[in-house]
Amino acid sequence: CVANPEQRPPESSPCLVCVATSMKTGTPPMVRAPDMPSRTDSGSSDDAKPSTAAADAEAPAVVVQHSFASVQPDLPRKPNYWISCCKACVLLCLALLCQPIWFGTAIVLSFALTGVSIVAGLPIVFLILYFYSFMPHNDLYTQLLLLSYKVLFFARYKPTARGDMLPGLLRPKEQLEKRAIAYAVNILVPLSSEEEFKKDRITFTSTLGILFEENLHRLPYYQRNAAFAPGEDPVEYVMSYVGDVFPHVNQIYREKTSDEACTQLAFFGLGAHRIEVETETRTDEHGNEVEAKMYVVRTNQLSQLPVREGFETYGGDAYFDAEWRIEKIIFQTQLASEGLPGPLVTVRPGERGWEYAKFCWRSSLFSFVTLVDHLYGVHMQAGNACVVAMRQQLSKDHPIRRFLTPFSFQTISVNDNARNNLVNPRSMGPRCFALTDIGMDLAWSAAPTLLQSGVEAAKAQTDPKLYWRALLDRGWYIENWVKPRLGKLTPWWEQALEFWNVQKAFVTAFMESYWSGPEALLQDKEAFKFLVQSVSIVQSTSSDAITHLAELPAELSAEIFWDATINLIARYTNLVTAGHEQVGTVPVYAQDASFCAFAWKKGEMMATKQAALNAAVLMAFTSTPMPPLMRKTEEDDWSFLFPSEWKSADVPSPKARADAAYNQFQADLARLEVKYQAFNDAALAADATFPNNFGIWAHVPSLLECSVSV
């Protein structure tokens, strides 16, 4: 075929002469696949292809992979342990020759171990006795974690904007090294080594610290069942161990276990953002059927999750009448033997088991909000998405990057710490809750569908403009989704709306300081990529309500892009300040194991000592100080971060305008501070009457920090 090119067969078939030659030599024939470029081809354009016969002749042939025949196992089957009498004799002789070496090594090791035991024996015994001397109702993991946190806490000073957010330490736009978190799907958290404002990124001591943190959760978990003695104070017990690192308790409960306390918890406290309305058909005193309005805070979504043996299952939907007084709690029971939901059980005030029912509901709500809204919603999903997109898509001098810097301060380190110490199997999070490993897996899998963050409103929209507003605009969500369903906003929702309007006004004024409007911002490619990546990460970690989200950015008009960008920035800043205060800064609940518990034994109205201390240790992590949101001194002023110019900015004197927006924001915070403090003072007055005798601390500016702690 080489001598007669005209008789050469198609390139996809081998020449018969070549086939015959290969049969004699035992090598496969050379076959050139049609139109199949090499993996090493530098280009695919026609200009890059050889056009001469010489080039065709020099082109290397592609070798077809050789095919091997199948082989059947031998029959009848005989065992093969890779040993025979001859081989066994050889190995025995080698073992006899090596025996002196073994004895010599054993003698050397015995002397070495004896020396080590003499030198290290005292400190080892001391450490064993030390760990047995405190927290006797807990395990080694919790002891080491608490001690290491105390070392870090007291080595840390309270950061300030001017002292710790130096623009020269901002890192460039870059891809971040990430790790997948356990349980949840599609969530990648950047490593703490990717954090900004660190002069020494990797040192020997920091490497040891990383190894310690990454592997501490591998220590075994031991369940201790020691209970509090009758009359023993659980608050005093936990504070004796964590009082030096426990966060300040902002929320005030006059008392915690009464029916009125349930109203405070549901409408003014931990459940205020989860209040819903339901109507019931009832018969009045005249025998007529009427529709009764009921408020409800639900936790029965957790009722079917498996828990460890001896612990109570989660769940309970608390119903309140039109006057906000608790009327009943409905439990969805669990048929553990069949793996199916059991019958509904309703418990009312005054009935047997009412106090236990309230404790179960309070504890279930505490667990629900901590796992779903705090760990998943704030840290792992929305907070992580915005920080990753900011660092990977925005240059360090971009106005949006500079604006978000205080609100993302050390968030990468905090979230990586949460991945190691709150999410990993056998870390503090799983040790706190009563859920089995399967239960934790199911809970994290269900978390995206349990969030109430705007996704449920966005799903109902068909207009793209309304879709983006429902998803990102907290004000639109409150006015057009929450209010129509409640009929009237509760005081908590009124404050949430007012605080949102102040934050959005700040963001809008800042954006207008650099871009004259939607068309100007649309020319900023980095801002566009920031929006796309942020919502894409949220989309990949949410329910099927927004599965089509990734297709929308290409269809965005300049006006929608402008609104969506402003709402995204405002939503993030709102989430890490007031949002985190609502769901994450909750020491009043974690401090008292008779008020709320993450895990409790069946029939018991108080957690065990181990469970109580676990919850307190977890809450201690939130005491890590961050820069304040409200400017109290010049050190707290972060307006120096705003850039003097930007390549796509089309507004004169942008820095002066941005500074004015910041000063107005601080003035608005001062106004809200006076208003909300007056609200709380009136609620705590001796003559305050139900239901106006409960305060709200989630939106008080002086209590808020710029960025999240754990």
Biggest sheet architecture:
5 strands, antiparallel
- The secondary-structure class comes to alpha+beta
Tally of alpha and pi helices: 23
Report the mean per-residue pLDDT as an integer. Answer: 86
The arrangement of helices and strands along the chain is HHHHHEEHHHEEEEEHHHHHHHHHHHHHHH
Bin the strand percentage.
5-15%
Distance between the first and last residues' Cα: 75 Å
Radius of gyration: 33 Å
Determine the fraction of residues in helical runs and give it as a percent range. 40-55%
Report low-confidence residues grouped into runs of 5 or more.
1-55, 200-204, 545-551
Count of individual beta strands:
7
The gross shape turns out to be globular
Major β-sheet strand ordering = 3-4-5-6-7
Q: Can you describe what's shown?
A:
This protein is α+β, with helices and mostly antiparallel strands and 710 residues long. 47% of the residues lie in helices and 6% in strands. It has 23 helices and seven strands. The protein has helices at residues 16-25, 53-58, 85-133, 140-155, 161-164, 204-215, 234-242, 259-268, 354-393, 399-404, 411-423, 428-432, 437-450, 455-458, 464-472, 474-486, 491-514, 518-522, 525-540, 558-583, 587-590, 609-620, 654-683; strands at 178-180, 188-190, 276-283, 289-297, 317-320, 326-335, 340-347. The strands form two sheets. A five-stranded antiparallel β-sheet has the order 3-4-5-6-7. Strands 1-2 form a two-stranded antiparallel sheet. Strand 3 and strand 4 (289-297) form a beta hairpin. Helix 7 (234-242) crosses helix 22 (609-620) and helix 9 (354-393) crosses helix 20. Residues 1-55, 200-204 and 545-551 have low confidence and may be disordered.
